[in-house]
Write a structure and sequence with these properties.
Blueprint lengths: L2 H23 L4 H15 L6 H16 L7 H13 L4 H4 L4 H15 L23 E20 L23 E19 L2 E6 L3 E5 L3 E7 L2 E6 L7 E4 L3 H11 L3
Antiparallel strand pairs: 1-2, 1-7, 2-3, 3-4, 5-6, 6-7
Helix pairs in contact: 1-2, 1-3, 3-4, 3-6, 6-7
Length: about 260
């Protein structure tokens, strides 16, 4: 391929992505976008079969811009939806890079913050959990890890002198034994399963471990990049960790639900 033609081809693809993103962000006339894309195709040797993929990348880019603040307002949501419908893009197309899921999370948080908990879409998926009466499943994180802090006790030091048998089963006098215990905390993987968020409780359901944590019994939440830490409201409670893959969303979701 001629180097100038290749450069023009690459720039044409980038331009389609950019113009698609801008048309969503600025809520432009999508019929004009079609005309613009046609001109770019003609001048950049782009195969028409590549257009859907480029439109999806433009949609992804717009989502990233809209979600700079973590939320998606209703006008931004409408602009994304109109672009999706106009170009007949499927949900699977738009979630190739997880962008559609990001918009669902942002919309959910927006509705919670605006006090519209009764209007939230309830997940109907069949789950191996005995839910409470009238409990609503808000979100499910699959393949989540459950990790706990465990205190390990280790004895260090030794007795002095030679081991001398004092009586059957006893080899040292208590006064000569100098060992002492040291405690340290280790983070231990307990199980892998589902983290299920409802309007009343935080659940974990794994193959060997399950738990229900009512929001009223949780003392504090700690956000992490890939999950959340929870400390129960009980004596000597240690932090439990749940790796959901999206710590920011998990923390904001349960924090808002716990305040209802």
């Amino acid at each position: 391929m001629h180097s100038e033609c290749e450069e023009q081809h690459t720039n044409g693809k980038l331009q389609i992505i950019f113009e698609s993103s801008q048309s969503i962000i600025e809520k432009q006339n999508l019929h004009k976008l079609i005309d613009l894309i046609s001109d770019i195709i003609h001048n950049s040797y782009i195969n028409p079969s590549d257009i859907k993929r480029l439109l999806v990348k433009g949609w992804d880019s717009a989502v990233e811009r809209f979600l700079d603040d973590g939320l998606l307002d209703s006008s931004e949501e409408q602009s994304l939806s109109e672009f999706k419908e106009f170009f007949n893009l499927s949900s699977s197309d738009l979630d190739t890079n997880g962008s559609l899921t990001k918009t669902k999370k942002a919309i959910l948080l927006r509705e919670l913050i605006n006090g519209k908990i009764d209007e939230l879409t309830v997940i109907k998926e069949q789950l191996p959990i005995n839910f409470q009466k009238h409990e609503k499943v808000i979100w499910v994180f699959n393949n989540s890890e459950y990790i706990e802090d465990k205190v390990r006790r280790q004895y260090v030091g030794r007795s002095g002198g030679v081991s001398i048998r004092i009586m059957k089963g006893v080899y040292y006098r208590t006064s000569t034994f100098k060992g002492y215990p040291i405690e340290h905390t280790e983070r231990t993987h307990i199980d892998t399963g589902r983290v299920v968020i409802t309007d009343k409780n935080f659940y974990f359901a794994g193959s060997s471990k399950g738990l229900r944590l009512p929001y009223t019994k949780i003392l504090s939440f700690a956000p992490f990049s890939n999950g959340i830490g929870i400390i129960r409201d009980s004596v000597n409670a240690k932090q439990q960790f749940f790796i959901t893959g999206d710590g920011w969303f998990t923390f904001n979701l349960v924090k808002n639900l716990s305040q209802y």
